[in-house]
Inverse folding.
């Protein structure tokens, strides 16, 4: 592979502690190396430009049957954007639910190189891997959902942590999954009975277990296995006024559990799209921000990480395994609704949504997401996301950067709101003058997510030995600029290296990259009981045979990067 030397750029890298100093970055054999290790490199002049590691998205919905349903469900979404192929680029389209091709290209244009699919139904793992395989450039992994799985509910009802861990290990191998995902624990299973679990103590019908038991048990099983990422949770009661108390109750379930730190993480819980879980009030008429109360807890407890779920004020497509929430949403906006049940495992729903700046609640949601980040004392534990596409499309990350880095940009957005005064009264944002710098942005979009995923040995920084994932932006951090210049620069990378290969050069896609799929091969002691249970339930309840369930072969997972986890005693 060719050698490269990126010279004279303003380097932003939390891994090395570089905060905008001029420095040179060398790439050889696909890795970052010391500058003395390259002998005759191709020189990239980054004078006056910002140099950062490739971005890492810890939570997005970019592949799988739910995403594909969103594409089919909303042909009007394709009217926003359609681009014929040019050069090496393939035909692409879609706005809030882009095609796989557009997904890879648009992330690359923002300087991202690693993206995790946040909710994979195990039964449809093959579909998910097929879409990830078809997505260019990006390294990707997927989180199988466990919070409403019949095996998990039955084992945790009896507090059988070892059996739960053995089942998780088997399912991660069978689906080529990366982490334990929990969506509305118990609530999605309750939805099959026309019910929901609105708080952590509501019983799940038939199974006689509560969300609190599910959450705590899955955290314990996750740490028993020592998986690279902590338990990744979408809590109960999403999107309802007053739900911040449920969020705090869920946070507290992580207390007292020691993290298995073999992969360098210090947390036992990741709580996703916290904006949707930070509401006060008891109705939509008096809904208000409780971001301060949420961040007071996060700032004082080092055992959890969170991501924003920032509303971007766009027309979008909501999709989640939280089936009852999607039914609730369609009753609110009266737009079309799709619902699905995935046998013994999970369910999902899809509903279009318009986050209008002329609607008070949407503006309040916008403010809450920004408050979470601006009130964070440790940006290494608070990550930038839109819960794509639920709060807005991922292509708005540069716009979120603008809002976080510029108080003036936030004021401009406030002035555009129809109910500006009411939004200010219901939130804290207008009183926050903090402006994040690029170093803090890099913590939230690169070093922090990589560490949370247990992938700090590969991604998130520019230290020698890490992957040669490097982004160069037309942005001089030492010169004053208009807020919109931030969005423009970080939405259109000048240059991007993926594993040492240029995929963007002079703002043009020049390669589809040599992408990889990340998955965890978790090993436990042989557990005959769990395998008997699996075989029995497949015979009784599943519509597929056990032999046809497992994801196998390079047809589905080409060029895999396997993370080995050995929990045998």
């Amino acid at each position: 592979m060719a050698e490269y030397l990126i010279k004279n750029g303003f380097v932003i890298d939390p891994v090395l502690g570089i905060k905008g100093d001029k420095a040179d970055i060398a790439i050889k054999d696909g890795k970052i190396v010391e500058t003395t290790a390259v002998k005759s490199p191709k020189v990239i002049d980054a004078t006056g430009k910002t140099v950062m590691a490739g971005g890492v998205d810890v939570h997005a919905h970019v592949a799988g049957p739910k995403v594909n349903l969103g594409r089919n469900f909303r042909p009007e979404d394709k009217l926003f954007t359609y681009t014929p192929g040019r050069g090496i680029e393939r035909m692409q389209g879609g706005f809030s639910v882009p095609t796989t091709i557009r997904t890879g290209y648009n992330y690359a244009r923002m300087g991202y190189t690693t993206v995790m699919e946040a909710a994979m139904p195990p039964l449809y793992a093959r579909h998910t891997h097929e879409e990830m395989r078809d997505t260019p450039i990006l390294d990707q992994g997927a989180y199988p959902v466990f919070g409403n799985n019949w095996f998990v509910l039955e084992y945790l009802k009896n507090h059988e942590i070892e059996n739960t861990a053995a089942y998780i290990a088997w399912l991660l191998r069978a689906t080529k999954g990366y982490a334990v995902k929990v969506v509305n624990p118990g609530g999605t299973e309750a939805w099959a009975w026309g019910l929901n679990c609105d708080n952590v103590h509501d019983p799940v019908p038939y199974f006689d277990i509560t969300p609190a038991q599910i959450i705590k048990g899955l955290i314990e099983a996750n740490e028993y296995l020592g998986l690279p990422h902590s338990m990744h949770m979408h809590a109960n009661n999403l999107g309802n006024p007053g739900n911040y108390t449920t969020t705090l109750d869920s946070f507290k379930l992580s207390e007292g559990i020691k993290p298995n730190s073999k992969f360098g993480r210090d947390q036992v819980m990741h709580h996703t799209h916290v904006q949707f879980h930070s509401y006060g009030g008891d109705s939509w008429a008096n809904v208000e921000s409780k971001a301060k109360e949420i961040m007071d807890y996060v700032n004082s407890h080092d055992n959890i990480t969170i991501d924003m779920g920032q509303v971007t004020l766009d027309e979008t497509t909501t999709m989640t395994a939280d089936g009852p929430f999607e039914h609730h949403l369609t009753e609110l906006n009266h737009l079309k609704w799709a619902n699905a049940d995935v046998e013994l495992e999970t369910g999902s729903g899809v509903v279009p949504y318009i986050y209008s700046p002329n609607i008070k609640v949407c503006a309040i949601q916008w403010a809450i997401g920004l408050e979470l980040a601006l009130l964070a004392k440790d940006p290494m534990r608070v990550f930038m996301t839109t819960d794509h596409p639920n709060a807005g499309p991922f292509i708005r990350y540069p716009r979120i950067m603008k809002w976080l880095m510029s108080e003036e940009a936030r004021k401009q957005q406030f002035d555009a709101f129809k109910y500006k005064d009411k939004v200010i009264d219901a939130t804290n944002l207008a009183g926050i003058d903090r402006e994040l710098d690029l170093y803090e942005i890099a913590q939230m979009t690169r070093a922090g997510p990589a560490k949370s995923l247990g992938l700090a040995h590969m991604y998130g920084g520019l230290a020698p030995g890490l992957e040669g994932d490097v982004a160069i932006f037309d942005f001089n951090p030492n010169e004053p600029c208009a807020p919109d210049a931030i969005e423009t620069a970080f939405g259109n990378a000048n240059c991007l290296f993926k594993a040492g290969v240029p995929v963007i050069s002079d703002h043009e896609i020049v390669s589809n990259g040599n992408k990889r799929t990340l998955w965890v091969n978790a090993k436990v002691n042989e557990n005959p009981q769990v395998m008997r249970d699996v075989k029995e339930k497949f015979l009784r309840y599943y519509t597929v045979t056990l032999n046809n369930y497992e994801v196998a072969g390079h047809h589905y997972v080409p060029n895999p990067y396997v993370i080995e986890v050995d929990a045998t005693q």
In short: Residues 161-175 form the longest helix (15 residues). The chain has a mean pLDDT of 96. The CA atoms of residues 192 and 510 lie 47 Å apart. The two ends are 42 Å apart (CA to CA).
